[in-house]
Model the fold of this input.
Amino acid sequence: MAAACAEMEPAAAPPPSPPPAAAAVPGSAELVCAQGRNLKAVLCQRCGSRVLLPGAATFARRELLLPAMRKKAAAAAGGGGGGDLLREHWLVRDMFSFENVGFTRDVGNVKFLVCADCEAGPIGWHCLDDKDSFYVALERVAHE
Done:
């Protein structure tokens, strides 16, 4: 039976918040412009491959449970290995905005985002029920 996207989120997760002003983003102010978009390029932490260009995504707060970082094949298998509850993400509305990203096979109604070059991940999350929302966790990527 396919898992619903809501099962991947903690209970009573709030809807995505509107883009905040840069000053309202503690610890991330240097990454977010006044319009709530990414000021710097988003890179893979492992290999440095460019995932997003500056201005390609909007800052969003949403609680999402991502599996622990590992290779694409292991991430696609799902389950086991634990995970992290992440709250700060880059929200991308068009999959063609990515410079370099891969997707795992479906895990229920979810595809996890990984680096297309080294397959490190998951760096983000995409629910198949919402074709226009791709989340990249700030804690799982580097910025330059």
User: Anything to note?
Assistant: The first strand starts at residue 42 and ends at 44.
